[in-house]
Amino acid sequence: MARFRFPRFKRAVDVFNPQLFENLSLAAFLAWVGLGSDALSSSAYGPPEIYYALKGHEYLSVLLAIGIPLSVFIIAAGYKQVIALFPEGSGGYHTATTLLGPFAGLVSGSALIVDYVLTAAISVASGTEAVLSILPPYWYQERILLDVVILLFLILINLRGMKESIKVLLPIFLAFLLTHAIVLGWGLLSHAGDFPHIAEATIHGAQKDSMEYGWFFIAALVMRAFSLGGGTYTGLEAVANGVHIMREPRVQTGQRTMTLLASSLSLVAGSLIFLYLLYRVEAHGGETLNAALYRDITGNWLAFGVNWGYWVTLFTLISEGLLLFVAANTGVITAPIVMANMAVDRWLPERFSYLSDNFVSRNGILLIGFSAIAILLATRGHVRVLVVLYSINVFITFTLTMAGLSRHWLRQRKSGQPWLWKLTVSFVGLLVTGSILIITIFEKFDAGGWFTLTITGVVIIVGYFIYRHYRAISKRTQELDETMLDVVPENLEPGPVLPLDPRASTAVFFVNRFDGVGLHTLLTAHRMVKGLVHNYVFLLAGIVGQGEFKGIEAVEQLKVYTEAEANQYVAYCRSHGMAATWFATYGTDRIQAMEDLANAAIRYFPNSIFFAGRVIDSSQHSALWGILHDEVSFIIQDRLQKDGFSMMIVPVHVRGMPSKLPNINLPIDMDKSMQLVQPDAKDKSETHEHAD
């Protein structure tokens, strides 16, 4: 019979390569580019919202130009604590789960998922507006189409690999820094003589409003502007979420990245707010406020008969627009990290915890990308609508994170470790983020706030029911384990090593671990083929998902666990006079791993028939079952059958299992003259075999 071989499109990842995690990790600078671009690009829509909120009282921009950087550093200081406490990553989700409880984690994670969808949507919409500010007005009619095309492009490049996409976008980030340093720096230096006048006007305006409206009015106006400009703070969460992909030492790298991010964001956002006031900026037509500011700053840059100001403004707006697309990319690549961690905790379908063969969470990228497209179409790409939805969600996570940190340090006061300063920082952060969240919801509930709260609520409810489903199935499979494992003695004696015959018929089993499902499949198959097969082979795939992608040590632990489970199957079979062995492989893609295992089994045992168990709960089975449960066995079955090999999927009902296993006559007559066949070590590839 012909050798079975699945088609290959990409080379499998060697998860035991000690350089793999180093190659995929990011230094502080690259992390600043890939994960910090979200925050830095928010200067395109956060500061303008603050300035619009001060209409008629623009003199207060001075206070906000100082207050915004201060609050950014307060929140960043809180997230440095998160990085130190949780160097494995996960950010606000893991912080809320660990420090406040699972339900708080569900709320934080759900808010983050929606937030990253909105990150992609608002960044693309704002970036398109920035670029269109320098084009003829008729281009503005095509902005929705441009938004969709750009998002599709980001989805495509991220399916090729995260680090690769960051390197492609690095020149854009550097161009943004250079152009904004030149334009904003010149704007401040050229009007330095006006600073005393601005200070006097601020004092005069505050005195006038205090006499007319009172100080409470001024404080409320400042807080309202803070809140409505909440989009300025977004992106700080992304660094804490992505710590696990940073270069060792992770904590120091993550904290350096956070310092770079907070410093650059404070300088850009604070400068913009102050310059709006300094230049009395007004936007016209479809022009953005930043475009009007850049035009005013560079308007008199004439030399040698060339209007250099036009070209500098053009290049600055292009770099701003492209950086916003980088920020959208941050949402696309960071959301799957949060989703993977939630999937590990069973709030989302388990398939989101898998990594593909090039270490990209394909399912998450596709879901986030196309959800962002749907949001853009629903809102018609209006930035001022999106920024409201955006700010609410990110501050839900900020508030829960700061609350968790405050609770943690309060509990540490008797531990003998330094806690007072850390508690002060996290509590001040809680006051800042909590007040912004409450005011934003109150001010903008009717203007779209209700929509984002509804969407987040739906995600929370869906996550809760997914968790309940998995918990119910887990409880029933545990009952199955207890029932099936009754047939296994506590001190299982493996029995003598029995010879395998590579020419004889062989029963091959795809199993995950030594449990009730695997034993049920084995015993059911044995009753069907008893006396017809001589060899029993077990195939185990150690899948490196988000939970194991922490370093080579975690992969080694996965290997030890997988081989221990495999050895239990072999010991069980030999204790009943059945010749058995196992094959195991390790990778990031379950289907590819099963292909490798099938190839290995057929290479050494050409006369193989395959079996796989499938858990069925008739009380809950529905169209959603295929989404919540891995159905790759059907894919493998189809491919095996096309190549002339038989595979049977054994149904394992976990509803109404019998309390005792029926008596099954396990022993079969074996040909004692068969010789043990060891696989050729030179042809191992990436598949590991059991060696007796």
Textual characterization of the structure:
- The chain has 692 residues and is α/β, with parallel strands linked by helices.
- The protein has two domains: 20-468, Up-down Bundle (Amino acid/polyamine transporter I), CATH 1.20.1740.10; 492-689, HUPs (Rossmann fold, 3-Layer(aba) Sandwich).
- 63% of the residues lie in helices and 7% in strands.
- The protein has 22 helices and eight strands.
- The chain has helices at residues 20-24, 28-41, 46-53, 61-85, 91-100, 102-132, 143-158, 162-190, 195-212, 215-228, 236-241, 250-279, 289-298, 308-344, 362-379, 383-411, 420-484, 516-529, 552-575, 590-604, 625-628, 632-642; strands at residues 302-303, 306-307, 506-511, 535-543, 579-587, 608-616, 646-653, 687-689.
- The strands form two sheets. Strands 7-6-3-4-5-8 form a six-stranded mixed β-sheet, sandwiched between helices. The protein has a two-stranded antiparallel ribbon with strand order 1-2.
- Helix 5 (91-100) packs antiparallel against helix 6, helix 6 (102-132) packs across helix 7 and helix 7 runs antiparallel to helix 15 (362-379).
- The protein is elongated.
- The protein starts with 19 loop residues before the first helix and ends with a strand.
- The relative contact order is 0.13.
